[in-house]
Design goal:
InterPro entries: DUF2507 (IPR019642), NO_sig/Golgi_transp_ligand-bd (IPR024096). By secondary structure, this protein is of the alpha+beta class. The protein has 6 helices and 4 strands; from the N terminus they run ααααββααββ. The chain has a single domain, classed as Muramoyl-pentapeptide Carboxypeptidase, domain 2 (2-Layer Sandwich). 54% of the residues lie in helices and 23% in strands. A 4-stranded antiparallel sheet has the order 1-2-4-3.
Length: 141
């Protein structure tokens, strides 16, 4: 997908977008990919970051919002580790609609973006401690 096309799509107002995204990610892909879904979504997120490299922390936030993934903010930065919080209605709605929604796509995207920005190897894990937020831990070598 071309970046200018993505920009236009991200501005398109359509209330079916969240449903379509959840249907694809939390339904169809999990059914098709079975046990491999988490790994494939993680690496798909990394590929999305390669195609849509944002170059800044603010760019990451803008991309998450445009993609309908929720509102992300960095909560702490330490040597070798960053912690990010993903919040918003998208998270609440996905948690209400699915017993255990996957956030591996977002984790892969975040890992690759930070790797491209720091030029250091990264990995990202996440935990959902309640129904309204997801905590991402980005480990930087």
């Amino acid at each position: 997908m071309k970046k200018d096309a993505y920009k236009k799509l991200s501005e398109f107002q359509n209330n079916q977008t969240a449903f379509s995204l959840a249907l694809l990610r939390d339904g169809i892909l999990n059914d098709i990919l079975k046990d491999d879904a988490d790994d494939i979504l993680y690496y798909a997120g990394k590929e999305v970051a390669r195609q849509f490299y944002t170059k800044t922390l603010n760019g990451i936030q803008e991309f998450f919002s445009a993609a309908g993934w929720g509102d992300i903010e960095i909560s702490s930065q330490k040597a070798g580790k960053e912690t990010w919080l993903l919040l918003g209605d998208a998270i609440k709605l996905r948690n209400a609609a699915t017993d255990k929604p996957s956030f591996f796509l977002e984790a892969g995207f975040l890992a690759q973006e930070i790797q491209q920005q720091t030029h250091r190897s990264t990995e990202c894990s996440y935990q959902s401690d309640d129904k309204s937020r997801v905590i991402f831990s980005v480990f930087i070598d």
